[in-house]
Amino acid sequence: MLRIKSKKISVQFITLAVLCLCYGLMLYLSLPPAYAGRPPLPPYYIVDVYQTPGIVYRIENEKSSIFFRRRSGSISSIALWGDKLLFCSDNDRRIYQKIGEQERVVFEHRTYIRDVAVDPSGYLYISEANGAKGDGRIYKLSPHIDKLGREGRFSISSDSQGRPIQVRLITVDKYWDGYFTFDLQGNIYLSTGYRIPAFIYRVPRQEGSTYGSPQKQYSDTKGAIKGIAIDPRNPNFIYYADWNKTIFRLNIRDSRRSIAFSGSLARSRNPHLSDVAFDFRIRR
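The structure assignment produced for this chain is given below.
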């Protein structure tokens, strides 16, 4: 009698397990394509501007590792294209390139550079901004990053000579801290910076190298939005640094956000994450 009862329990358990498996499979298959077919998250890179010497961290599977460390000086903004890391520091007019464990100057501007970013074609851009004191500008640099020789330097592209991309303060709530990024279609996204409330704007690309008026996409009434980057494998997601210890993942379609990374970094007692960047080439 005991054996029969045990056999019944075993059959019931197996049946229940099969039903659970089938239900889970049906639930997965019923998900919208944006979730069911979501590509894996690629690694991304972040910097804490308060760290000296500056360190670029690689974040993969929510774990951080040191990708590059300067010998001296901070790092406020970063851009990546393949094996090339380009960066700048607050209150500096120069852009640097990582060469092994060393660095070299690849561009010098007439005034302070606020941010660096790469467009989906592989061209480097820089911004200059004064917060609330005047309109900002974004300049395209030449040559293409792939064509920058080991001893080459960037210059302002003929596309930007005399007519850079203007960021008029009246169109961005009268403040812009200089942070920007590109999506895969070449549209520009702006973030207002450490001021609260903070905003993200989309600047649609038009014909050639012209752009339309900024369109507000998201606002945060409690925190800052510094450096931003778009996931090249899932362009619905914007990642941004909150000028504290968190990188947020924002779904631009429904304005829902989640924490992508939060935690202490080596030698960072007072965290001020200022920028986040993906390598656009990983989408290929």
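Interim note for the steering committee: The chain has a mean pLDDT of 87. Helices lie at 2-29, 33-36.
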